[in-house]
Amino acid sequence: MTQEEMLTLAAEEGFAAAAVIDTGKIVFDPSFRPYCEENLCGQYGANYSCPPDCGSPEEMKQRVLDRRHALVLQTIWEISDFSDAAAIKQAKTAHNTAEIQLVKKLRANGCQGFIVGASGCALCHPCKQTLGQPCSFPDYRYSCMSAYCVFVKKLADACEMEYDPGEGLLSFFGMYVFD
Predict the structure, then answer these.
(1) Are strands 169-178 and 113-117 parallel, antiparallel or unpaired?
(2) pTM listed for this prediction
(3) 3-state secondary structure of 89
């Protein structure tokens, strides 16, 4: 599958922007991991895709660097009130749902890789980890950019995407990391 075909599929899934970059150009900053440890989302230690269970910052970085390319994906949402947690959660869910739909198409075309989401995995409620059961969707489980310690602003800049799309707008980023 060519990069152009990947970008076309991303556009068809509704992504505002998409770009393919070499993983070596991704900037990692382990100082982002404490955001996960603050547990504002309530998933720290309660979700297979979240710290500490997903891996250390170095392990997560190496997982990305073990692949050659990343398809970086951006969605942009109109959010009138940035304190509206329900609206933001709905936008994140829509972003990650579109990302999974795109990944299914990429994999059907022979492009194998893994997902980095706009938030921690939310495929099961609650995560099977809290029930002491194995993950129901190991091929689609995704960790967030913070868990990987990706410096998203620098990633957006490297992909020539607007990190802050303007007043009343909120952008989310994800990646599909592949060879």
Answers:
(1) antiparallel
(2) 0.95
(3) helix
